[in-house]
Design brief:
The chain has 14 helices and 17 strands. The chain has 435 residues and is α/β, with parallel strands linked by helices. Bound molecules: NADPH dihydro-nicotinamide-adenine-dinucleotide phosphate and L-homoserine (HSE).
Length: 435
Amino acid sequence: MASHEGKPIRVALLGCGTVGTEVVRLLTDQAADLTARVGAPVEVTGIAVRRPNKHRDVPAELLTTDAAALVASDDVDVVVEVIGGIEPARTLLLAALRAGKSVVTANKALLAEHSAELFEASDASGADLYFEAAVAGAIPLLRPLRESLAGDRITRVMGIVNGTTNFILSGMDSTGASYAETLEEATRLGYAEADPTADVDGFDAASKAAILASLAFHSRVTAADVHREGIAAVSAADIAAAKALGRTVKLLAICERVTTEGAEGISVRVHPAMIPTSHPLASVHGAFNAVFVEADAAGEMMFYGQGAGGAPTASAVLGDLVAVARNRVHRGRGPRESAYAALPVRPMGQTPTRYHISLDVADRAGVLSQVAAVFAEHDVSIAAVRQEGRVDDASLVIVTHAATDAALRSTVDKIGGLPVVREVVSVMRVEGEET
Ligand code: NDP
Ligand code: HSE
């Protein structure tokens, strides 16, 4: 890798949409400060886009549709990728890294599938690979996991990493409206995209969970390893059931160490869960993100802020750009992939979880004992029971202690088939409490 003492750091920007436009704006507005911080001027030498004639607030002479030629150009030291998706981003970034060009990317989908290949290319040439913006937008989170906590043992990372779903769940909680009504409102206000699948079905959060787990546990985790459930099945009844017990519903990305039959592994999952309203994540509303990290020596930490949007995401991209530019100026090197621990990802069925189960049951003698017998049969311990009689039936709410998710699923299936159970009103996992 060449030294750049005094010479400008030349940047190829791939993509100039929501995030890319803000990257150009910040680079222009803060040019003098960035030069001082890096030790050399940072100059954009080209911007690759799909539609060069689309109006955008960047110098027209920098635009090109030939992203591959831009990446290959001798006038480029650093490639910043804000196109998104797998291809052509993957091919372009591999070419950049193999040519010894530093890479900054915000592309969670790419990293959650192809980080091994990208890190291998980065290692082979010694070029930096930074991706702070890929998880939780503006929030400094990946650098703390990769660097600040590198001397500690992280046990758990649990967070709200998707703003769209948090906006919808917060809306359902405050208005009592249904999922469909609240999604419609989120789309109307521009919080949810026209096709909200990636967000509401948990794909976006699963990519982010894979990246978080890889960094936290020094293991390779891909999006395919992540157990994923979205929020489309969350009902107004689920939200009401949570509220009645001082809890709130959030879509959580959870990455944790689990020990199964004496062997250590990790559980990586995205699903809706009830958390106590006293938990720090419960007060994260609207489109904000927050991530709660637990480590042996450091204890509990929370990272909070804007998880999306052009300017907040560009802030994280610029932070990475300054880091890789400094490394080039001073012949330094950023952190490499750390996957030495190679912990296996356990299937969801083996993961210890807790359930909140709300039932409508017949109100007569022996009902509770029949229900309790099913829990005992599956070796699931009950933590709390609340029963309220109504005119001709009763509401029964049961919260369990931790058991394997497979045992809890079988318990619910069997209870749903009992003649005394009229309806399984709500079933949801409980997080953020003592087991
Ligand atoms: P946009 O869709 O707004 O922008 C994508 C840009 O890529 C556009 O400028 C588009 O060109 C360009 N592009 C698309 N295909 C090609 C191609 N084949 N060759 C060259 N250029 C191409 O995306 P965002 O800015 O919202 O997101 C960019 C990345 O940042 C994604 O990885 C996303 O996940 C990530 N991210 C985004 C956040 C956000 O809030 N938006 C938050 C955190 C991360 P044209 O303009 O001509 O169509
Ligand atoms: N669609 C994402 C969200 C954007 O709603 O949080 C940031 O990845």
